[in-house]
Amino acid sequence: MLAAEAALELDETKRRRTILRLYGGGGSRADVNWALWRGYAVHCKDCSTQRADKLAASVTAWVDDPRNPGRQAGWVTEPTRAYVRPVRRIAVRCPTKAGGWAVGVIISALAPKDVLALTRQPVDRVSDATAVLLAYVYFYDQRGGGVETANKEDKQGLGLSKRNKKRFEAQQVVVLLSALTHNVLVWARGWLAPHHPRLAQYGIKRLVRDIWQISGCLEFNSRGEVIQVVVNHAAPLAPGLVAALRVLLAAEGVVVNLGEI
What we know:
By secondary structure, this protein is α+β, with helices and mostly antiparallel strands. It has three domains: about 1-145, no CATH class; about 145-210; about 215-260. The protein is built from ten helices and nine strands. The strands form two sheets. A six-stranded mixed sheet has the order 1-2-6-5-4-3, with helices on both faces. Strands 7-8-9 form a three-stranded mixed sheet, with helices on one face.
């Protein structure tokens, strides 16, 4: 973290606006207290399974998670002075195949209004204890939007596991081309999503399978410049894509239409 602070020039003001969302491996009391002492907004999972079971026993009311059948969450009511700054603790449990519960505890220094905003919920729900409780859980769930999920999406969407090369140099080229492809897809989604919000929820696999495999054709002028894009009208997602492309390419003078391909 100190190396990251130096590289990102995270002074005290910036650290107060930086969220550390950590897996259980970074949730020891010493680690959490160090991050809190440095001023970070910590949102992590307690690393101790035994402590999680003990804290879960203090929950007075469990709330069913509507997004994950069987999963429940509840506020930890046992007081603590173990942390250098005030934190909220949320116990989360899921049923196991053996018939018991797998329990974890989320530790968060974030305010309720912040987790509601970060999970894209109306801030006026701050008085709804259930909405706030689940917002803390859902924000922790979002840690899966990191590198692990990106790697999984690339394997599925770009077929990386099917493109292994025998020579080391060739495999390096495949990796670099895959990284370029990933970035172009993410950039394109960012360009189009403001004009076609549905695309903001699409991962790499859906972008490749449902959007960029829509057939079409290009029309060029005498200088080799694209002047018209025609997208297959029979594709279910074509109208939304065409509407977004029209806005995006209007400044370039490119006409975008639906047509029969």
